[in-house]
Amino acid sequence: MSSVALGSVFRDVGFLPKNAPRNSEGRRFWIKGSAVTSPQGLQAANLRPKSSTKAVRVGVLGASGYTGAEIVRLLANHPQFCITLMTADRKAGQSFGSVFPHLITQDLPEMVAVKDADFSNVDAVFCCLPHGTTQEIIKGLPNGLKIVDLSADFRLRNLGEYEEWYGQPHKAPELQKEAIYGLTEVWREKIRDARLVANPGCYPTSVQLPLVPLIKAHLIELKNIIIDAKSGVSGAGRGAKETNLYAEISEGMHAYGISKHRHVPEIEQGLSDASHSNVSVSFTPHLIPMSRGMQSTIYVEMSVGVTHDDLYQHLMAAYEGEDFVKLLQKGAVPHTRNVRGSNYCFMNVFPDRIPGRAIIISVIDNLVKGASGQALQNLNLMMGYPENLGLQQQPLFP
Ligand SMILES: NC(=O)C1=CN([C@@H]2O[C@H](COP(=O)(O)OP(=O)(O)OC[C@H]3O[C@@H](n4cnc5c(N)ncnc54)[C@H](OP(=O)(O)O)[C@@H]3O)[C@@H](O)[C@H]2O)C=CC1
Ligand SMILES: CC(=O)N[C@@H](CCC(=O)OP(=O)(O)O)C(=O)O
Predict the structure, then answer these.
(1) Domain match, 259 and 327 both
(2) pTM for this structure?
(3) Could you give the CA distance from residue 42 to residue 20 in angstroms, rounded to a whole number?
(4) What range(s) does the Semialdehyde dehydrogenase NAD-binding domain occupy (predicted)?
(5) Which domain, by its residues, includes 72?
(6) Which uninterrupted H or E stretch holds 371?
């Protein structure tokens, strides 16, 4: 596309810089050959967000990471939320479009360091920062802000357990008390009134969505729950790590965190809440060579006299009318590729050949229902909107 054609595409959708020249009707236009007639020029022009009539001004802390980028992608189609603040750490000072060229057409503020962030123009934040860094940053935020924290920093109610699994004492225990765990389909009534929501981890989301209703209905035994889970590599974030290089990940798979992954206490907290007793699980995550997607294959013992069809019928009833949690037709196998890019969790229940046991399969996109999609679902609720607003993207295929 020529620079002139690019300009004519963008002119009507408001991507021109505010200081661009105006025609006799007062509309801004591109000057052929100027720096702002190419995508690179678009970045160099340092665009500020256009004035917006959208009701809620949103900050994205950690916008230069994978979950931050995914929030931006989802918000592009949100009718009520606009982004007025973005932060980064190493990439502070860079334009978002230069860090994520697939989103270059979005009219966004420049990313600044958290310490330089101005929250006066912000009603709510998505906190997409590494765990451990988040508690102190959230402690320093203005009181009136609604916060959805995607990190693990406020998920565990027991501070001793937090210290044991995360290797450091909690730095904001007073805030932990008010945090609401954001597994939307289970806790939505509490989430509506929350100021601070701890968005669940990706593995815990894929595990709790099928198991919580079954445990609440006493349909499965609380012992011998075995979870074999697999994640795409984006689950590990965008930071460079030798273990996540293409050559280390491709053409193979491996387990990690065996018997000591930090999602164990989070899963056990959710299942214990559902059963009002202490539940322990065996959980083994694996890294597989795909960029996004997650599957949990869960082996359970059914309660005496319960059949796998009872599990199926109960999940059907539990999630009837839910926008994002779908029980597939009997026998259909959930595939990660069928939820890619969407906020869906697809699940199904299968009889094991060993009598009394069943196999449950649950799939999500780790970056959407496992992170940014669920975070947006929660902020919708916190701001009084339908929880599916801006989240109706269908899965990408192939
Ligand atoms: N990826 C996933 O599938 C999921 C992730 N999560 C959680 O969400 C959070 C974000 O994950 P993800 O987006 O994958 O992570 P990334 O590593 O991709 O991004 C981290 C972001 O935080 C910024 N950052 C890093 N260190 C600091 C610091 N000390 N102070 C301020 N900003 C900092 C980075 O900035 P810069 O790039 O400029 O250095 C970047 O913007 C994590 O807590 C993660 O565990 C939860 C569910 C799923
Ligand atoms: C593939 C991979 O590395 N996945 C991450 C989990 C991603 C996630 O949900 O992490 P938080 O609990 O930090 O939010 C891990 O195993 O640590």
Answers:
(1) yes
(2) 0.89
(3) 11
(4) 57-194
(5) 56-86+103-200+371-382
(6) none
